[in-house]
Please model this.
Amino acid sequence: MSVDRGGLVRQQQQPPAADALRRALDFKTQGTQCYRDKKYREAIGKYHRALLEMKGLCRALGDPDVGARSACAAPPPPPPPSPGKCSLTEEQKGAVESAELECYNSLAACLLQMELVNYERVKEYCLKVLRKEGENFKALYRSGVAYYHLGDYHKALHYLQESHKQQPSDTNVIRYIQLTEMKIRRLAQREKKESS
Model:
């Protein structure tokens, strides 16, 4: 707040970038609450809105370094920021990047809870996370699950084994590794029979 010459208290307005960041984080928080309430479709909508806010923020700032490259990358380079526009602090940039990765990871989690799972989309979202955080356990595990259901068992095994290195006692990871190894053995046996 500030006081003008007449003694009136004026509410200081947040810069547009800070306001867009706040909206994006609010949508992400709402998405998380919907996920906890098992309202997966609603959560997906909230996470998408958060990502749209972040993309709009990147475009408005003309700053390709804000957030993860996947959100701010546009085929043509964005125009330079106008002199009146503010940019984000390093802390805010970190918040955008972190929120974006959380949104993609959470979107993958929501999709895996749906009756009809779009495994291609799960894979896509997880790979976006792994490009920035190659050791992200949840993204590694979910990528493995997605590749398994897409029938790419060797890639599935790779991602599942990477997640297993981080959490060796996780029963879901162990179960999917066993299922994947079984599929790979069956395929090898089938190929062997067909070649003889």
Q: What stands out?
A: The chain has eight helices and two strands. The beta strands are 2-3, 9-10.
